[in-house]
Design brief:
alpha/beta; Rossmann fold; two-stranded antiparallel sheet
Length: 220
Amino acid sequence: MNARHPDHIQVAIPLFPRFTALDGIGPYEVLQRIPDIDVTFVGHERGEVRSENGFLGITCDATFEEMPRPDIIVFPGGVGTRPLVRDDRVLDWVRTAHDTTRFTTSVCTGSFVLAAAGLLDGLTATTYWSVYPQLERLGARPVADRVVEHLDRRIITAAGVSSGIDMALRLVELLYDRTAAEACQLMIEYDPQPPFDAGAVHKVGDEVLTRVAEYGALRQ
């Protein structure tokens, strides 16, 4: 594990089998640009963890217990969050760590874990567009916003996948200032100009939704 500087802001990004890669890597790319932020990937055990399609492996450098009091949590999503909502080890870590975090955040279905830990009870929160009912069953009030903040609770949730980049830039602004956030945005050259305007469910028709369902079924 890389040495952590005691005066730096400590960010923990949990990994678990079948996580969505960009959910964690997007925020990582933003946050690691700040010289006094240290990012550690944590998990059930040290070693490689594979993303949801198995194509990509990322190394956990610490267990949950080895990083009990991070300053920031960024909990990514993915199919692998489903069993975590019943994983007492993970939920206890989230609850205990949240007592002392500066911010506890999630991307995509990472909000399922925050909700299962009791952090989102009765609060508005967001997640991937197709799973709002599941988030609601866990006690949150889903909303179709890209980033949802409850700064008095030190909680921020982001919607699906790429929204984690937006959330991380906002996090930098909260931790430092707007100039720092804009510097990070420029360093990663985040200037989206997609060739299609199909990044939200209300912008597409049935043909696209059908194709999404087909691809999703083949990935299960």
